[in-house]
Automatic annotation (TrEMBL):
Database matches in Pfam families: P-II (PF00543)
Species annotation: Roseivivax marinus
Subunit structure comment from the entry: Homotrimer.
One Gene Ontology term from the biological process aspect of the record: regulation of nitrogen utilization
Domain of life: Bacteria
Lineage: Bacteria, Pseudomonadati, Pseudomonadota, Alphaproteobacteria, Rhodobacterales
Family designation: Belongs to the P(II) protein family.
PROSITE patterns assigned: PII_GLNB_CTER, PII_GLNB_DOM, PII_GLNB_UMP
GO cellular component: cytosol
Assigned keywords, A-Z: Nitrogen fixation, Nucleotide-binding, Phosphoprotein, Transcription, Transcription regulation
Protein role: P-II indirectly controls the transcription of the glutamine synthetase gene (glnA). P-II prevents NR-II-catalyzed conversion of NR-I to NR-I-phosphate, the transcriptional activator of glnA. When P-II is uridylylated to P-II-UMP, these events are reversed. When the ratio of Gln to 2-ketoglutarate decreases, P-II is uridylylated to P-II-UMP, which causes the deadenylation of glutamine synthetase, so activating the enzyme.
Name this polypeptide is given: Nitrogen regulatory protein P-II
A GO molecular-function descriptor: enzyme regulator activity
Length: 112
């Protein structure tokens, strides 16, 4: 099993969710986060005062899938979330040693 952690722009969330559902992803965890990378934040003007926004709003997706499906999930997120502009996000793929469904006690592939 693989854990895929992706950061994307907030306005791309629904489009990415629909694309992942279409390829058979059955669930994911979504968290609103703030961060910075290459774009290093930006400046904004609010009520006439300029101020620095050092952290940019992002969405973090966490998805556990069978190893055989991980490449397809990464490709789908990449294709769907891409705008071609700085700050499109990152994707990390990690190994998962064990998964347990709390309600039924099912483990590993049966739990996802």
């Amino acid at each position: 099993m693989k854990l895929i952690i992706a950061t994307i722009k907030p306005f791309k969330l629904e489009e990415v969710r629909e694309a992942l559902t279409a390829i058979g992803v059955r669930g994911m965890m979504v968290t609103e986060i703030k961060g910075f990378g290459s774009q290093s934040g930006h400046t904004e003007i609010y009520r006439g005062a300029e101020y620095a926004v050092n952290f940019v709003p992002k969405i973090k997706l966490e998805i556990v899938v069978a190893e055989s499906m991980s490449e397809q999930v990464v490709e789908t997120i990449t294709k769907t979330a891409q705008t071609g502009k700085i700050g499109d996000g990152k994707i990390f793929v990690l190994d998962v040693a064990q998964a347990v469904r709390v309600r039924t006690g099912e483990t590993n592939a049966d739990a996802i």
